[in-house]
Amino acid sequence: MVHPTGITGQLNPSYFWDVELSAFEDSAAARLIIERIFNLGTQNEINLVVEYYGKDKVINVLTNLNYIDPKTFNYIKKIFQIPANRFRCHTRKRLKNQHWNS
């Protein structure tokens, strides 16, 4: 069952340390919420996000992200059964890793 006040009140606020989520509507922050929950959230939170936004919306957001860490990428491919070539992050991989200079 979806919480009547939206999804943000049901998620760990520490995932959104850099933004004031209360300033966003759930629909306007969909990309941010989906990305953070798939990268940082628990399985229950992932299920909640999929239930709230719908599988099609979640897949659309995830396949259009510029970067997904390798572990999360493999997890998403497996649970949604999506080939790697459908992901923007897979087709735009850098040719060479860049290192930070201090």
Short description:
The protein has helices at residues 30-40, 43-53, 55-63, 70-80, 88-91. The chain is mainly alpha-helical and 102 residues long.
In words, what does this structure look like?
The radius of gyration is 15 Å and the shape is globular. Helix 1 (30-40) packs antiparallel against helix 2 (43-53) and helix 2 packs across helix 3. With 102 residues, it is an all-alpha fold. It has one domain (8-91). It contains five helices and no strands.
Which short descriptors sum up this protein?
single chain, about 100 residues, mainly alpha, 5 helices, globular
Low-confidence stretches: none
Which strand-content bin applies to the residues?
under 5%
In percent, how helical is the residue content? 40-55%
- Report the major sheet: none
Number of strands: 0
Report the average pLDDT across residues.
85
Distance between the termini: 48 Å
Number of domains: 1
Structural class: mainly alpha
The outline comes out as globular
Q: Count the helices. How many?
A: 5
Question: What value does the Rg take, in angstroms?
Answer: 15 Å
The ordered H/E elements are HHHHH
Write the layout of secondary structure elements.
Layout: H1 30-40, H2 43-53, H3 55-63, H4 70-80, H5 88-91
